[in-house]
Write a structure and sequence with these properties.
The structure is a homotetramer of 281-residue chains. With 281 residues, chain A is α/β, with parallel strands linked by helices. In chain A, 45% of the residues lie in helices and 16% in strands. Chain A contains 10 helices and 9 strands. Chain A has helices at residues 22-32, 43-48, 51-58, 70-84, 99-102, 112-135, 162-185, 208-218, 226-237, 262-272; strands at 10-14, 36-40, 61-62, 88-93, 139-149, 156-157, 188-194, 248-251, 258-260. The first copy, chain A, has a 7-stranded parallel beta sheet with strand order 3-2-1-4-5-7-8, with helices on both faces. In chain A, β1, α1 (22-32) and β2 form a beta-alpha-beta unit. Chain A is globular. The two termini of chain A are 37 Å apart. β6 of chain B pairs parallel with β9 of chain D, so a sheet runs across the interface.
Chain lengths: 281, 281, 281, 281
């Protein structure tokens, strides 16, 4: 589908690794909707990923940047403006990583060097990006900035570890900077709280299959896919959502509005080995 | 602007009175985006309003209905399906009225007959509409239902009176029925929590000017207008938001994310007649 | 345990039926903490329950009242003030009933006469109580009013039906009237959102066993019992919580803060018949 | 007042500087309620404050500790257990500091070295404390840990700067670790979101007078004082609140439940220099 929703708009997209990435899907959809943009990721992600395919398809330049490094961000933003021919209209931040998770340090045995790094990569990078753009006056009036988040920022999901705290910090930064950007520049900043999504980054995590089954059965519309998230992100970048700012919007098939669904309860009750099948709706 | 976002989609729009109504703007935008729909309001609103102009402009049939009356709703939904040639894809519920407010009964001196009526008109009508459509199987798969709400459902604003409670009930009904509709029919139900908007219905309320000045200065992007709300509603009706359900989304220029803004504080401090001008940002 | 936390305080307690009722436990604890109070319930509940035992134990007078009837409430409040020798310091509202649930009408097939009754009994009764007390000036400065609620007001739990909407309305009324009472009388109004609790009223509901197992395993501290809820209610009545108002406080062993726990996930995975045991914490 | 609510309980109290500190008031009240505890603060705060007076009054030992330093925390916790004769039952974390605020770096011109320090002092210190206690098995079953927070974690208040993000992170850590502590040790972890309070630490901030006037007039019960916060904290430490965990509870006179109050609006309208006095309630 294509509506020309982003016709003439310019952007920067962080975080596309391979064709399972949400950022990848956002890039594809943004291209279909008429936008031009640059792509960025860390040098090592660029090496291991397949971003060149995406760049070719979308006619986009790839600019390496470590999002925790202000100089890299300055370079990225300046080059993007040069390449795109002016200020950008939209930015996607899709960045998160926890060494504590990777190294299997549980939440009551965190390594603080890793914790600081989790926060820097997954949350402070968003402030650095916004501050860099602010100083370079790099975003157009009525521009739209989106960062991807997860419901672990509000509710504990075992195993999500210090990434939960990073997402809470990320959402707070979106709110805090959204105030400044709204007041001074008429630019909006929001986070999208997406269903758990099977990406290459996340697929190695043990226990994720059970969780995704649970969220699938709990969400009345099922888990939201990466493609669907891309569509919603396009709506948030478009001129249809100009007055939505400082919000964290759940794009999750309804999971966040649920306490317990009939479908998940039936599955749970099987585990109980009882014949207590729920009768009420 | 037009993107053909609703091309081929059918709908029902409640609550257009005159060209200040949000529902009026939604109808205009839905028409521009390629939708066909019926319009409805109470018989008395139809008499005093200017809905025929809108109907003509949008090529829409007007069907009178008292939204608290299930038979009226059945008639409306059946006729709409006949006229539009099948199930509908979207519905807008923009209905609210409090006799306690009109008759200046303050919240600690409510008349319970009026309170029940406030709830019936402003909230239960939404359940009646959803249940009627459910029984008539009147909404297409991946259809979208939106009701307009207000932040008084979460935070007390003096003077909003029993309408605040009605909006809380409305949002709960959206959530409760959103679960059923999502699970059984793949249809989404959401509420949009809109900035205070100067409509004909609301303009008579004393004290509203001060409040709207306050929300204007508190919201980083200013109050959202009826036109902007219509644009956001279109996005919620479109296929870009298929997995958003059971949510209450603030379309308010950022007001809901604010505790106190610099602009509002400056204004407030003038009232304090002090020279305590805030220095920090 | 007894701390004399309510020494010299007077109150009214709604909703004690038998010794499984939360209100029953609150009465016992309030008595232990030095309070005097009246007990009330509907005439029919008084017939079928065992409230006389409680009244004797607590040295309390029982006054029948239908909480949806303003005259009954006036009589109750006036008599309570006579018996107790002045204004009251605390009130517990523990009232809820849905004929739709009782008659097994599912949420997409509600009878509206019942729905109105659900709201009247479970939510509007709270407004009627507060308004009656307001007009009779029946609550002392720094008094405390508590109503019992449930997380279904925020998140859908299948089967809770129109009671979810009633609880959302109840919490809104607490907030709306809390503003007036705080501003004019320095009285606080809050709701306690309690774990699902096995009471006589709730025990007949099918499917409740599975749900309570799920909430038990999801809540890090397990479900909160009626006795524990009584203790928390005493704290909310005491002078230690004078500045907490217009809040809905979760007393639920942590359930509301959870997305998914390890314990519940293990149980759920058994139902999946997989060997995907979660490895991460 | 004294109820012996903490009789026989042992604790650690962070953050008492002088008699305006909330932590100071908590210490006084904990002492009155029968607890024994150690006091702690950074070496420099101990030099400039008057903590020795408090220590004498409460019969408490003062142990210096930099709460960002795990070794210091280990020493503090071990010594506290030695002095108090066993595990502790309660801990108060009242720690926050932003060099960006102190050095007047606005939010769109933060120094990242300072930002990291703000997070480390105001939020990560709480994780370090909890993890240290966890490893040392230093908290008794049904113990209670409280950290002080502020509504800036949810809503932007201009000037609160990166402290807002730190409070959001702090509340997330309370939730995340509350899950582990609840599940494994039956210990609860909560945050109290307190009204703005005139302490020595906060009193130098420009613009705070206007803000406190606004919150005073907006909160139906007025701003909560440090003494009142101490009372509420005692309730949270007591056995009356055993099943409340992973919560952020507003102790703010109702501010968090308000959108706009009549009193604040009247003041605001004076600034508007209009005669639009609100007529509705």
């Amino acid at each position: 589908m294509s509506y020309n929703l982003l016709k003439g708009k310019k952007g920067i997209i962080f975080g596309a690794l391979d064709n399972k990435s949400i950022a990848w899907k956002v890039a594809e959809r943004a291209h279909e909707e008429g936008a031009i943009f640059t792509l960025t990721n860390t040098p090592s992600a660029l090496r291991f990923g397949e971003i060149d395919q995406l760049a070719e398809k979308c006619n986009a330049v790839v600019i390496p940047a470590d999002a925790t490094n202000v100089e890299d961000l300055e370079n990225l933003v300046k080059k993007s403006m040069e390449i795109l021919g002016g200020k950008v209209d939209f930015i996607l931040h899709s960045i998160g990583m926890s060494l504590n998770v990777r190294k299997k340090r549980v939440y009551n045995d965190l390594k603080y060097e890793y914790f600081a790094k989790t926060l820097d990569i997954s949350a402070l990078s968003f402030h650095k990006l916004l501050q860099t753009c602010y100083k370079l006056n790099a975003i157009s009036e009525w521009g739209s900035v989106v960062a991807l988040s997860y419901i672990a920022a509000q509710r504990v999901l075992y195993g999500y570890n210090d990434m939960a705290d990073a997402k809470a910090l990320l959402e707070s930064i979106a709110r805090s900077f959204g105030y400044i950007y709204g007041r001074e520049r008429k630019i909006r900043v929001n986070t999208i709280s997406q269903s758990p999504t099977r990406t290459t980054a996340g697929s190695g995590v043990k226990g994720v299959d059970g969780l995704m089954d649970f969220t699938e059965r709990t969400s009345p519309l099922g888990n939201a896919t990466a493609e669907e998230c891309a569509n919603f992100t396009i709506a948030m970048f478009s001129d249809l959502t100009k007055k939505v700012t400082m919000q964290n919007i759940y794009h999750d098939g309804g999971f966040s509005g649920m306490g317990m669904s009939l479908r998940a309860m039936k599955q749970y009750n099987k585990g109980l080995n009882t014949d207590k099948l729920p009768e009420i709706e």
